[in-house]
Amino acid sequence: MVNLRFLPSILSSKVNCFRRCGGRGPTPLAKSSVPFLQRLKSSSVEEIMACLPFYTQGEIVKGFGRGSKELGIPTANLSESVVDSLPKALTTGIYFGLSNVDDGEVYKTVLSIGWNPFYNNTKKSLEAHLLHAFPKDFYGSKLRLIILGYIRPEMNYDSLEKLIEAINSDIAVAKDELDKSEFSLFYNDKFFSMPAKDGTGTLCNGN
Ligand SMILES: Cc1cc2nc3c(=O)[nH]c(=O)nc-3n(C[C@H](O)[C@H](O)[C@H](O)COP(=O)(O)O)c2cc1C
Fold first, then answer.
1. Any catalytic annotation for residue 70?
2. SS (H, E, C) 61-114
């Protein structure tokens, strides 16, 4: 279990990362992630692993709105200040984790960190797709997210269909991985219900 002793003070401070005291090492990355990880330099793999699980939270802001309209895969974009405070070690790519909106139920989540090469964005973003059909947009709401595993690098595709296919495959990977017992405790993590003084903050649980 992740040591949460330091969370409240860190969430209300400017400190973005902390090292976990004692306990187990970094959460092992999912077996299905290995082929993708092998494409990364081993130093990157170690750096990512040292950062997981990664806790972050912030206000949901408007993206370009293509997730819902063009892809049929709505995403919650975290604010620029959260994206800017992500550690360098959390390299751009596609990850899976768990998240909730405004203290609500915790859902399986896939997310993208980066520049969306298919759209050639000029600003780095963190976009989370929660595996739940929400009835409406939740701009201005608070997203809490625990990133638990890495799936693949961001890629460009020669068609919108191929991008959608890749994201659907990420969703399938996330569903499978997040059913594994190694992640079960995170569904009830105190982080999802704890009061926070401010709306933002990122926590890197290295070993
Ligand atoms: C699981 C997942 C995987 C993604 N993979 C890629 C990718 O490989 N390449 C890419 O350009 N964009 C990728 N994206 C980002 C989408 O292009 C982006 O969510 C979409 O453009 C909507 O952005 P918007 O809400 O800012 O309009 C991914 C998004 C998610 C949620």
1. no
2. ECCCCHHHHHHCCCCEEECHHHHHCCCCCCCCEEEEEEEEECCCCCEEEEEEEE
Ligand 1 pocket check for 112: Cβ under 6 Å: yes
pTM exceeding the 0.85 threshold for the entire prediction: no
Q: What is the torsional sign of CA 66, 117, 206, 58? A: negative
- The helix (H) or strand (E) run that includes residue 142 is strand 142-152
pLDDT in tens, 56-112: 999 999 988 888 888 999 999 999 999 999 998 899 999 999 999 998 999 999 999
DSSP-based three-state secondary structure for 202: strand
Task: Kindly report the backbone phi and psi dihedral angles of residue 5, in degrees, each rounded to the nearest multiple of 5, phi listed first.
Answer: -55, -30
Using the mean position of ligand 1's atoms as its centre, give its distance from the Cα of residue 116 in Å: 6
Domains of the chain: 33-206 (2.40.30.30)
φ, ψ dihedrals at 30, nearest 5° = -60, 145
Residues 116-147 have pLDDT tens digits of 999 999 999 999 999 999 988 889 999 999 99
Instruction: Write the residue with the smallest CA distance to atom 18 of ligand 1.
Output: 67
Ligand 1 site, residue 160, Cβ cutoff 6 A = no
